[in-house]
Amino acid sequence: MRLAEIQRVPLVPEPTPLHPLPRLSAALGGVQVWCKRDDLTCLALGGNKLRKLEFLLQEALDQGADMVITTGAAQSNHARLTAAAASSLGLRSVLVLRGPVLGKGQGNLLLDDLVGAEVRIQTWETWEEANVLLEQVADEMRKAGHCPYVVPMGGTNALGILGYVLAAQELAAQTEGQPPAAVVCASSSGGTQAGLVLGKALFDLPFEVVGISVNEPADKLAPAIARVASAAAELIEVDPISPAAVTVLDDYVGEGYGKLDWRTVEAIRMVARLEGVVLDPVYTGKAMAGLLDLAHRHRWKAGDSVVFLHTGGVPALFAYWDVLGRR
After folding, report:
1. Which of 155, 188, 223 is where one domain is finished?
2. pTM, two decimal places
3. What share of the chain is helix, strand, coil (3-state, %, to 5)?
């Protein structure tokens, strides 16, 4: 298979754990919830982006890059892991982060500093504008004699999402004989979900992939996921993905990206108090709020297994202490 021929830098200890959540399952009336712990990867307190970075940073090394440049919100998990992975490979990193700054000097920003990233705070209205800024920084670095590699926001492109194609296969092996009814994940740039959807199609896996949007409307995000999944399908020479194969729910966005609402706060507290598992305020908290609501509305029946993909992001909790720390 073409997929097996594409080289990657080993950054993720595989497989990541798959844990049952029995007390949460009992509270939901019998839907059996499992947690796929992609937060338990090794670098800089872990997270899912390392699966994508395995492929992207291999390409950076192949191109002779001496630095990587990427973007995200001020408390970006992706930026933190890109910088940490770059440092582990002897590469410099420049992070072009979107202001205003939440939790100055805390959470991911503290870790960015510890791993040696150069952080530039900018403002922009759209992610298209952010991409222009990335290219401007890359041009600046080329003129200074560097060989930069630009990592897209979230690591989401045809090459990066191959990490989650392999993750789908990994999960299938872990659940062999008792496949889940669904895998639930947070969806923002859409790369994680795109990889899972392509992996489901490629390996003929029986579970539904349910993406809980944390910012975009479903009618915008689902086609974008299908496009990047189809681009990856072309890369590994398999059939494209139809938008009809992508399930995105936007009922849990609340007031927008990174903005806490009561359902997210309660989901974070519930999982922490029942299972000792800590979720984050931007991605997994909202995704879990979605899973809890879907279970209460009987999307799955008692006895069905549902896998919750914990994508990490816990460092950002400390930038939200003023909300999460109050009863």
Report:
1. 155
2. 0.96
3. 45, 15, 40
Same domain, 223 and 110: no
Range of the domain at 147: 49-155
* CATH number of the domain residue 142 falls in: 3.40.50.1100
Q: Are 71 and 132 in contact (CB under 8 A)?
A: no
> Given 25, 76, 93, 188, which residue is catalytic?
76
d(CA 9, CA 92): 17
* Closest of 267, 12, 307, 316 to residue 155, by C-alpha: 12
Tell me what pLDDT residue 103 has.
Answer: 81
| Exposed e or buried b per residue across 96-114, where buried means at least 16 C-beta atoms within 10 angstroms of its C-beta | bbbeebbbeebbbbebbee
pLDDT of residue 105: 86
**pLDDT reported for residue 251:** 97
Q: Is 76 a catalytic residue?
A: yes
98-102, 189-193, 247-251, 313-317, range with the lowest pLDDT: 98-102
Beta strands in the chain (DSSP E): 18-20, 32-37, 67-73, 92-98, 118-122, 148-150, 182-187, 208-213, 247-249, 305-310
- The packing angle between helices 284-296 and 262-275, to 10°, is 90
**pLDDT bracket for residue 326 (50, 70, 90):** low
